[in-house]
Structure formats: C-alpha cells, structure tokens
Write a structure and sequence with these properties.
eight-stranded mixed beta sheet, FAD/NAD(P)-binding domain, alpha/beta, 7 helices, globular
Length: 358
C-alpha cells in the first residue's frame, strides 16, 4: 500500500531527480518521486547523451568542475543499477573540428581541460587545429532512464507518474509536503528537480531565472558502412554513433518557451551539416525527429542547495546541456549537503539564494 508520508519527496523524474532519489535512498531516507508526466521522458530522454560538456573550456569553472566529477562517476553509477537494460555507455572519444574561437588560444584551452582532468590531444586536419578528447563517452539516454526507473522501483522508492507537484507546502517557515492534483503528500523535506518547470515551485525565484531551452535532434538509421566510430563536432553540431550503427545528430539552442515543436527548417539544417561533416551519412534514412526542453539558468550555473528561507526545501536543477554529465556529481553533492557529510565539491557557486528576490 502506498504511503502518503515520506522523509523526502523529489519532484521530477528526470536524470537529476532519479539519481538524487537513489542517492538519498542509499543514505537511508524513505523517498518518493513525483512526475508531471511519464517519468524519464523529458530533457534527460531527449538529449544526445554525450558525457562531457561541449566546448568545455567556454563554461564557467563551476560548471566544468561538477560536470567533470559527474563524468568520472558514471562507471560506478552504471555498475550499481538493478536492471537488465544496458544503457550502452560507449567510450568513443570526441573530435572537435573548430575548437579555437576568436580570443582563445591552444594553451588556455589545454590548461582548462588539464585542470578538469579531461585528456586531450591537438591534431591538424586540413590545415586547421582539431581537438581530440579520447576518453569522452556517450550513453543511450532512453535506455539509461529506463534502467534508472527499474532501479528506483527495486530500491523501494515510491514513483508517482502523471502526478504533478503543484505546490510545495510549508508551515512556519519549513516544508510539510507537496500538493498534487489528487491530494497532499507529507514529507519533512522536498527536492525540486523538475527541470525547465522548476521555477514555479521555488518561492521567491526571480522571474526567468530558470527557463526552457529547446533542442531539436534527429536519428539516422543503423548502417554499418557509415564508418563513424567517434563523436564528431563542428560549429555547434554533433554526430553521435550508437552501438547499433545508427547516428544521432544535434542540436539546436532555441528560446521558444515550453514549445516542443519539431521545425522542418531547423531539422534540414542539422541534417545538411551532418552530411557535410560525414558524407557517408547522406544516403541514410531519418528514422526519428524530436525536441526537448533543457533547464537553463540565467547565469549558466546549476541550482543546487537549500532554500535560505524555507527549511527543508532543496533544489537540484538548471543543468542546461550538461545535466546528464553532471548527474552523478549533483546527486552526491545534494545528498552530502542534506545529510551533513563532507563533499569534494564546493557548493557555494550553485546556491539557490543567488536567484531569489532580495
């Protein structure tokens, strides 16, 4: 029988919510996860699955630090899953054909990557510098989410699909639970991990501090003869080989509100660029086209920590394009903060209060 009282309720069943729920359950808490729709089918499902920030040296240092920690945590996370589903983590490496933008230098890029512990090599292709990152891996997002959902169920975490967290309930400055369309659930603590929908659930959040950013993708049929065996990137477009020989192509960056419409023009541009980058893809059939809404933040940093004015209200969101790569590290950091344990990461840059009305 389903309980209506938990130690912790996590709002959102994407990569941030599911990994957080598992880490908190491992720490001994009773945990429930709510999702406004079908768990594991929003931004975490829709992304390309690259476990490394794209053009990593261009992000704030605090983004790269937590993403690099997350990347290193993936083998252990995948080994811990209670599921027969293989997330298909492939260490393919990533070749970036346009690594140096105006104002950037090879030495500065190399120093940033070295500090983050990301192996890299400079190559020359057609008289221009290319950057090879040999240890970059990718996962097949839908399979990863399904494996995480299997594990959540196996660990005794209550999962409520099609049950939105409408409001975090409080009394005398502390959390008491969550209001949902079918009634209230009680909890001592609540974690908002609702991705692009998080802002409305955090009292005092400045308008448009968190927002959706649409990304469109497409997938080409499996063809062993395409020859692509590594992630290839140029001018913001990436090609990702999958274990079955299919290739995933992405991605746009569009501020279109909560609209997940797939646009023919944008899709055609992505496809044309991919075929220029790897001409053997030109004859491959497009099998899927889709769009997702990434959770962006106004300062590009994730939001992770306790609300300064509401005891027991925690937040883990705002990963934008790097939420998947960050997930093992954000879950571990959140759990360390909630249980009073030490962490190797400095939580200061991610604090909730930086985005609240003063």
């Amino acid at each position: 029988m389903t309980s209506t009282r938990f130690d912790i309720i996590v709002i959102g069943a994407g990569i941030a919510g599911l990994t957080s729920a598992l880490a908190l359950r491992q720490a001994g808490a009773s945990v429930a996860v709510l999702d406004r729709g079908q768990p594991g089918t929003e931004a975490s499902w829709a992304g390309g699955g690259i476990l490394c920030p794209l053009y990593a040296w261009r992000y704030p240092a605090a983004v790269l630090a937590i993403a690099a920690e997350g990347m290193r945590g993936y083998p252990a996370l995948l080994d811990s899953l209670d599921s027969r589903i293989d997330p298909e983590r492939l260490v393919t490496g990533m070749r970036i054909l346009d690594p140096i933008a105006p104002g950037e230098t090879r030495d500065a890029i190399a120093a940033t990557l070295s500090q983050a512990g990301i192996r890299h090599e400079w190559q020359t292709a057609e008289n221009q510098d290319a950057l090879w990152l040999p240890e970059v891996a990718n996962v097949r997002n839908p399979r990863l989410l399904d494996a995480l959902l299997d594990t959540v169920r196996a660990r005794g975490i209550e999962l409520f699909a099609q049950r939105a967290g409408q409001e975090v309930l409080t009394r005398a400055g502390r959390v008491t639970g969550v209001r949902t369309p079918t009634g209230e659930l009680s909890a001592d603590r609540v974690v908002v991990a609702a991705g692009a929908w998080s802002e409305a659930l955090v009292p005092g959040m400045r308008e448009e501090s968190l927002f959706p950013v649409r990304g469109q993708m497409l997938r080409l049929e499996p063809r062993a003869e395409n020859g692509l065996d590594h992630i290839l990137m140029d001018e913001g477009v990436y090609l990702i080989p999958r274990a079955d020989g299919s290739v995933v192509i992405g991605s746009t960056v569009e501020h279109a509100g909560f609209d997940k419409t797939v646009d023919d023009t944008a899709q055609a541009l992505l496809h044309a660029k991919a075929c220029r980058l790897w001409p053997s893809l030109a004859g491959a059939r497009i099998t899927h086209r889709w769009a997702g809404l990434r959770p962006g933040s106004v300062d590009e940093l994730p939001v992770l920590g306790e609300h300064p004015g509401i005891e027991g209200l925690w937040v883990n969101t705002g990963g934008f394009r790097n939420g998947l790569a960050m997930a093992p590290a954000t879950a571990d950091l959140l759990t360390a903060l909630m249980t009073g344990q030490p962490s190797t990461l400095d939580p200061t840059p991610y604090r909730v209060e930086r985005l609240l009305d003063s």
